[in-house]
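Worked example 3 (structure in, sequence out).
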C-alpha cells in the first residue's frame, strides 16, 4: 500500500538512502532539507526512478519552518503517515571547548528538531489510525564518544524521546522506533575525515566486526521494515544497525 512518507535530511547521506528505499517500496516521498538544491536533485532522481517525490525546504530547528513544510506536504502529497527523522548536525569539540552556542545548536537540530517534526505529523497519523515513525539516533549515545559530549547527549535524548512517544502513541496505531548507526559512509563522515576529526572511513571501516563501514542502504533496509505493515508489533525499540560495533 502506498503511503505518504517524509524524510528529514533527505538530500544526502542516510536520509537520501532512506528516501530511495521508501520510493522503491512504493511510497510517495517528501524530501525535507535545508539544502534546497540538494533536495530538489534528490526528488528529481527519485521521480526519474519512477517514484513520486517532492523537495521541501525546512530548518528543523525552526518551528515555523517545520509547520510550513508539513503544510506543503499535505497540500501536494497528502497526510503524512511515515516519518523518518534523519536531519542532524555533528561537531567535534573537547568538553571545555563547547560553547553555549554550539551546545544549543546541536540540541536544537538533533533533539528539538526531531520532537518538532514528530509533533507536526502525529495529528495526521492519529486521524488515519496508522503511523510509522523512525528516528535516527547514534551509537555514540549508547557508548559515549570523545569530543562529542553535546552530540551524544542530543542523540541520547532522541532515544529517550522515541521510547516515550512509543508508549504514548501505541493505542493510536502508531509505532515509534529508533535506529542508532555507528560508522556510515556519508558526506558528513567524509567531511569529518577531511577536517581531521577522526581517522577516516577507510581506516575505521576494517575495524568494524563485519569488516566494513555501513552504507545509507544498510540503514534504509532496516528503516523500510520498521515502516512496513509487518512491523506493527514493534515499537519503542532500539534497532542497532552497526555491523557489530556496539554489542
Amino acid at each position: 500500500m502506498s503511503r505518504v512518507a517524509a524524510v528529514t535530511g533527505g538530500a544526502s547521506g542516510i536520509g537520501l538512502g532512506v528516501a530511495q528505499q521508501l520510493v522503491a517500496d512504493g511510497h510517495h516521498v517528501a524530501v525535507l532539507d535545508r539544502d534546497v538544491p540538494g533536495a530538489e536533485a534528490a526528488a528529481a532522481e527519485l521521480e526519474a526512478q519512477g517514484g513520486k517525490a517532492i523537495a521541501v525546504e525546512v530548518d528543523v530547528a525552526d518551528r515555523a519552518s517545520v509547520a510550513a513544510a508539513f503544510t506543503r506536504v499535505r497540500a501536494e502529497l497528502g497526510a503524512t503517515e511515515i516519518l523518518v527523522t534523519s536531519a542532524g548536525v555533528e561537531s567535534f569539540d573537547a568538553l571545555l571547548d563547547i560553547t553555549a552556542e554550539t551546545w544549543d545548536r546541536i540540541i536544537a537540530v538533533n533533539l528539538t528538531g526531531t520532537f518538532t517534526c514528530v509533533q507536526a505529523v502525529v495529528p495526521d497519523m492519529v486521524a488515519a489510525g496508522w503511523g510509522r515513525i523512525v528516528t535516527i539516533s547514534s551509537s555514540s549515545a549508547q557508548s559515549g564518544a570523545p569530543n562529542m559530549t553535546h552530540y551524544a547527549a542530543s542523540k541520547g535524548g532522541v532515544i529517550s524521546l522515541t521510547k516515550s512517544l512509543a508508549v504514548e502513541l501505541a493505542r493510536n496505531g502508531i509505532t515509534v522506533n529508533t535506529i542508532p548507526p555507528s560508522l556510515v559512509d556519508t558526506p558528513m563522515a567524509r567531511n569529518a575525515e577531511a577536517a581531521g576529526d577522526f581517522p577516516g572511513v577507510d581506516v575505521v571501516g576494517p575495524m568494524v566486526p563485519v569488516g566494513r563501514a555501513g552504507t545509507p542502504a544498510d540503514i534504509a533496509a532496516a528503516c523500510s521494515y520498521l515502516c512496513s505493515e509487518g512491523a506493527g508489533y514493534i515499537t519503542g525499540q532500539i534497532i542497532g544497525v552497526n555491523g557489530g560495533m556496539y554489542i
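Notes: The longest helix spans residues 100-128. The chain has nine helices and six strands.
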